[in-house]
Design goal:
50% helix; 154 residues; Lysozyme
Length: 154
């Protein structure tokens, strides 16, 4: 038993050692982990998991380190901090739990929750999905015109 525990510990430690030549940006998190979370929270809040999944796919390509909107949006769900603050406050008032802005898990949770509350329009990719695959708008923040393309796979 003792030997089995030592071997397990050594195997675990070997998985935790990351060569210095690899940066966090080079690490690709398994999309299956995100899919599991997307499915769980979509089911919990009663929303279509395909919509939540596609918003994340179009927003960040499942990259938890993604930066968008000229550096204003962060993470897997591409939420800007001021938007996060009021959305997270709504979540806290209903569920009594604070969420971490830097956590992909919490961004997925908040995205599914907000879609369930009718606030999916805060994501331009959601608007594109609901508009047949495209959404065009003028960004005052970036002083630029954008057309977003995001379609559900058939």
């Amino acid at each position: 038993m003792f030997l089995k525990n030592i071997i397990s510990l050594l195997l675990l430690c070997s998985l935790l050692v990351i060569p210095q030549s690899i940066s966090l940006a080079d690490l690709k998190i398994d999309e299956a982990l995100y899919t599991t979370q997307i499915n769980f929270f979509s089911n919990l809040y009663g929303v279509d998991n395909r919509i939540v999944d596609k918003v994340i796919d179009c927003e960040s390509d499942y990259n938890p380190l993604a930066k968008g909107d000229g550096g204003h949006s962060n993470g897997i769900a591409q939420i800007q901090k001021p938007t996060w603050d009021w959305m997270e406050l709504q979540y806290f008032k209903e569920w009594g739990e604070h969420l971490d802005y830097q956590s992909s898990h919490d961004q997925i949770k908040l995205l599914a929750y907000q879609i369930s509350k009718g606030n999916g329009i805060n994501w331009t990719t959601y608007r594109a999905l609901m508009n047949g695959g495209t959404y065009s708008f003028w960004s005052k923040q970036n002083n630029k015109y954008y057309t977003i393309v995001c379609k559900l796979d058939n």
